[in-house]
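hiii, so i know i said id send this last week but things got crazy w the move. better late than never?? heres the sequnce for the chain we talked about at the cafe, plus the structure i predicted for it. fair warning i was half asleep when i ran it
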Amino acid sequence: MTDNAALKKTSDERGEGPEAVEIKAPVRKYIQENFFLGAAPNRLDDTTPLMTGGIIDSIGMIGLVAFIEERFKIEFLPSDINMQGFDTLDRIEALIRRKLEASS
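okay and structure toks below
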C-alpha cells in the first residue's frame, strides 16, 4: 500500500475526508530537495512566492506537478496548471485539497 493510500485509508476509517491528508510537509520537502539545494530549510514558509519569486521556473513546475499527481493520486488538467495556483505552499495546498475533494 502506498503512503498516500495508507493516509487515505486511515483518515477514511476515522470518518475524516481529504482535509485530514498532510499536504504541505511532503510538498515542502520536495521543493527543498529539488529547488533549494543547500539553502536553509526555514527559508521556505507557507507564503514564500515560488514562481513569482524565481525559485521554480516553468520546467521545475512540470516536475512539481508530476510529483503532486503521483504523491496524491490526482490529475491536473492543463487549465489547472498556472502560476497563481502554484505560487505558494498555501495555494498549492488549496489546489490539492480541491482536487482531493472532487475525487472523493
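btw The longest helix spans residues 58-72. thought thatd interest u
miss u guys!!
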